[in-house]
Fold:
Amino acid sequence: MLNPQSGLCLTDPGGNTANGTQLDIEACTGAANQLFSDQSQAALTPGSEVSFRATTSCCTNDFIRHQNGVGVISVINAGSSSLDKQDATWTVRAGLAGGSCLSFESKNFPNGYLRQQSGAVYQQQNDGTGQFASDATFCPSTGKNGRGVSLASYGNSALFLRHYNGHVYVASNGGPDAWDATTSWTDDVSWIPSTPWAP
Structure:
């Protein structure tokens, strides 16, 4: 972070990432210990737009997006194409299945929603059925790793939106499918609701 008046940058002298770390102010070098990311969160209010950033240490520049109808995570940044930014932007809707839960409509495919089907997550057109409504409704809670939000499947509250090997699934913490693996589960199911890439 650059102070425009002094021309100096905040620097983390020890590479510590814990909350409460004391920072120094030094000449800007562009080194890794002077690079910081915005951790602010967007509100999940029906009608608002959002992009969901992963919190797992491998993937903190990755966002949930659809690619050819499949739910995946990809690095999205200021240099990404307009299409990629739109694919990673969702309009928050009141849950199609009702209740206090939410549904997420694609920015660039109106009436196309993030929905789970047999464990995998897709962007698909709403067919108006009760099954689709249930599959496309997610219930937010505090992130399982203490950051952001976790999004439980309306149809099975033990299943949460999770990234695994670059794809998005609904997964339990241990279970029969590969994407239910317990390793890094709490991080993989925690998402930072971020400013939309394509407002």
